[in-house]
Structure formats: C-alpha cells, structure tokens
Amino acid sequence: MCTVALILLPDGTLLGGMNRDERPIRQRGIAPTLHQHSGVTALWPTDTDAGGTWMAATDQGLLFFLLNHYQAAARWQPTAPLSRGSLIPSLIAARDLDQVDARLRSSPGAVIDRLRPFVLVAAHAVAHRPDHGATIAAQTWCWDGVNLVGESASSPWLWTSSGVDPEAAHVARLAAWLPPRAGILAAPSRRHADSVLRAYFAGHRPERGPVSACMHRPEANTVSHGRVHVDARRVAMCYTDGAPCETADGGWQTFARAPESVVTTRNGIDQ
Asked: Which of 41, 96, 120, 211 could lock 59 by a disulfide, CB 3.0 to 4.6 Å apart?
C-alpha cells in the first residue's frame, strides 16, 4: 500500500512524493542517508527490517520509487525471497532511464526471480528543445513473477498500490490528486507548491480510511512520507517518520547535482 506522485513546476523543478504504507509490526525506517556507488551519489531512507529502500534520489537527477504489486503477489511468491528493497540500490549507478532498463534486464535471472512482485517507477526532468522548457521522463517496470514489463509513463504522474482494493484506492487517490496538482502548477513559489504537495499526502479524501492517500486501517497504515525536489543544482529530500497527517516533517537534506547530469532549458531550471 503506497502512493507516489510527480509534478514538474514551471521553473523546471521536479517534485516527487511518496507515502509508505506498512503493517504496524514493521520497525520504523531509518532516515535518509547518503550513499556512493560507481561515482554516483544517492540519498535514501532504509528499511530497518530487511535493508534496502523504497525511494531514492541521485545526483544524476533520477528519482526511484518502489511499490508492491499485490495483484500478482496473490498469485505467485518466490520460494526463497530476497527483499524488494535491494532493487533500488542495485540501480543507483544508472545515469538515465535507458541505463536503468539495461541494468534491470541484465541482472541474473536468479536474482529477480527471488523478488516478490513489484512496480518500479523511475523519473527525471528533461528538455527536448531549448525553446520548449522541461518535461518529465518517467518509466515503470512491472514484475509479476514471470515477466518484467517496462512502459513509458505519462500525466497525471500518480501511482498507487493497495492490498485491499487496488482499483478503489487508485480512483480515490487520483480524484484527490487532481485539484492540488492544478494548485501546485499555479503556486507562486516552490515553497507554496511543496506545502500543497505535502497536504495531498497528509489528506484523507474521500475520508480517513483504506483508500485515502494517508492510509489508515487496522492491519496497516501510512508509516512514513518523503518528498524530493530536483533542480539544476541541487537534490533535496525531506523525510517524515510517521503518518504525515499527525507527524511533523524532519529536516531537508541537500546535496549537489553532478555537473554533467544537468539538463538546461531556455530559462534555466533553477529560478
């Protein structure tokens, strides 16, 4: 049970957010820390129980989010599973979406065969032509235990998962996402846009319960929330250790973009 949303501000800043939904028996996650792999710097929170992570941002401007694929998991489970959280750290050295795809498909079959079904989202901001500003390039990879299917993603850049009623959860969270999405695009500042994004993830439309973005039910609930900002110079991540409807944000952690990874637009993407 998770929710992921992306949006690109008019100045080219890519904003991303994720609610992590888990059973209450799981230990609290570890706040984001910096990691280095093959010359790439990345920031991610860590799963205390199994290691790995469910979201990350790199100095290449790439964002990663991992959701459970409950529909497939109900039909298939590996005999000796590895933690799905190990997937994102194995992809951190990728410089773009093509390299993410290549790394996924070149991993030994015995490794991916031991991962429970998942949906992986990866995204970054790109500029097609100097006079057309930036846009989001995003792709998803769905592993159902048999096939790994990659697809390009498109607006409104929202992904959800639910172990109870996936379709109802997606419909409700999408309906709740569209009004704040419009508000973010019209926001007078990045700070205001971020506050609107956070309010969506802390929200309980249509009501507090199993289909709201901030999810609550007896067997599971939203246990943490993260937001990421990526512009031409910096990557910043804010982590909330608890449901965002009742827990204050932690501080922002910031690190520099790799110079060769920066994509510029007509007006620049850090204004």
From this structure: 41
Can you give the pLDDT at residue 31? 96
pLDDT given at position 269? 31
Please report, in angstroms and rounded to a whole number, the separation of the first and last CA atoms in the chain: 35
Could you give the CA distance from residue 73 to residue 116 in angstroms, rounded to a whole number? Answer: 7
Residue 136 backbone phi and psi in degrees, to 5: -95, 130
> Coil, strand, or helix at residue 130?
helix
CATH class of 2-261: alpha beta
Mind giving me the DSSP string for 79-116? Answer: SSPBPGGGHHHHHTT-SSHHHHHHHHHHS-HHHHTTBP
pLDDT tens by residue, 94-120: 999 999 999 998 866 557 788 889 999
Domain ranges of the chain: 2-261
252 closest CA partner among 199, 197, 194 = 194
Whether the Cβ atoms of residue 76 and residue 144 lie closer than 8 Å to each other:
yes
SS (H, E, C) 138-196: EEEEEECCCCEEEEECCCCCEEEECCCCHHHHHHHHHHHHHHHHHHHHCCCCHHHHHHH
Against a cut of 0.85, is the pTM above it?
Answer: yes
The three-state secondary structure class of 261 is helix
In sequence order, the 6+-apart residues with CB closer than 8 A to the CB of 137 are 97, 123, 124, 125, 126
Helix/strand/coil for 46? strand
